[in-house]
Design brief:
GO molecular function, one term: protein-disulfide reductase activity
CATH class: Alpha Beta
CATH topology: Glutaredoxin
Number of helices: 5
Order of helices and strands: EHEHEHEHEEEH
Strand content: 15-25%
Distance between the termini: 37 Å
Protein name: Thioredoxin-1
Number of strands: 7
Structural class: alpha/beta
Keywords: Disulfide bond
Shape: globular
Mean pLDDT: 82
Helix content: 25-40%
Strand order of the largest sheet: 2-4-3-6-7
CATH superfamily: Glutaredoxin
Length: 148
């Protein structure tokens, strides 16, 4: 189930339930790679996920689902943040396509933003809350000491 979006701050969360096959085919891919989103990388395998988060760099991972309205609403904010804070690596993990990663990381709701460094989970934000997401990113960009 999803909570409603409240403007101007996006709030909401979708609980992890496998979508019905027919319903799943209705949803279109909402995240498109463009020049402006070059800083957000889509994870395509468990191995790729582990390689990305194991670096000595703060990595913020957006665990999302294509059928999740709050995930779609917060996606442009993540792109903007990724273009502003180059010291942070940004990833997206589709919980349906990468269910093994989502299960291993104990993702129960989307969107869930998890901060990793050296393969360790260091922080988490559940829900599409623009203000809290911005504060999370700024916090780790400042810690990294390389705000751009």
């Amino acid at each position: 189930t999803c909570r409603e979006l409240i403007n101007p701050v996006y709030l909401g969360v979708c609980h992890l339930k496998p979508p019905h096959t027919v319903a799943a085919s209705i949803f279109q891919r909402s995240f498109r790679f463009t020049r402006s989103s070059r800083m957000v990388h889509l994870v395509s395998s468990t191995q790729s996920f582990k390689e990305h988060i194991s670096k000595d760099q703060y990595t913020i991972v957006d665990f999302y689902a294509n059928w999740c309205a709050p995930c779609k609403a917060i996606a442009p904010i993540l792109v903007r943040l990724s273009n502003t804070y180059a010291s942070i690596k940004f990833l997206k993990v589709d919980v349906d396509e990468q269910s093994e990663v989502a299960a291993e990381e104990k993702i129960k709701a989307m969107p869930t933003f998890v901060v990793y460094r050296n393969g360790q989970r260091v922080d988490e934000l559940v829900g599409a809350n623009q203000d809290k997401l911005e504060k999370l990113v700024i916090k780790y960009a400042e810690i990294a000491g390389k705000c751009s």
